[in-house]
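Let us practice reading a record.
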Amino acid sequence: MYILTFIVLLGAGALIKTVIAVLNPKDLLEYVEAGQGKKTLQINSYFFVQLFLCGFFLVSSCIIKFAADWFSSERIQRNLESERREMELQFLKSQLNPHFLFNSLNNIYSLAYQKSDKTADAIMKLSEIMRYMIYESNTPTVALSKEVDYLTNYIELQKIRFKDGAYIELTLNGEIDNQKIVPLMLISFVENAFKHGVVNDPAEPVKINIIANQKILHFSVINKKNQQNKDAQGGVGLTNVERRLQLVYPDRYKLNVVNSATHYTCELMIDI
């Protein structure tokens, strides 16, 4: 269909220009050649010349049109993709906050039900955590030091609810104060350790290690598995965070999860 249309337009254009030339031969067909005087261009030669010129302009116009449409389509596609990614990130983040809040409120409810003296401290820690989640994490990136403070507050909040004590070893190395990270990226790994791991064994504490330099963030969590914990919903947080990693750090992260018979290890490396 397109080829037929092109041929019709090409022939019609050349024919119209040839008819005009026949009606105005002095202006369009006659020419002066040096040393030979005035000459008249043959109609068939003129037709083929116009056929070539019309073809050249039609092809050029089509190329320009297709190129303009392609660039416009690519720009629209990029904008749509960017909007889709942003909407998905916001959706994943909205899932994360209620998930964490639900667990924390359950912990505080247990303390309040037991009339524990730790209830007020737990509410204060939760207030500090929610302040960070609501007011400080609404930017593409935050200081890694703030994310670490957030993790520390979360750990302290969790420690309050363990009567037998919670044993956590948090190790920080490198340039923690000078790096940035996408907010709320690490919390799910720590939350998973508390939810499914053994945290009250002083011989095998939960080990959280953060190492940062100018190029790489290395984060790992190792915890002893709670053999009695059969909660199948534990993977929600990690599935969420891995999807966020794919969106905000494409080809810039490595996530290694080892689920052995006795221990659970999450190791994350991000090119920051």
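A brief commentary: Strands lie at 30-33, 37-40, 142-143, 168-174, 180-181, 197-198, 206-212, 216-225, 253-259, 263-271.
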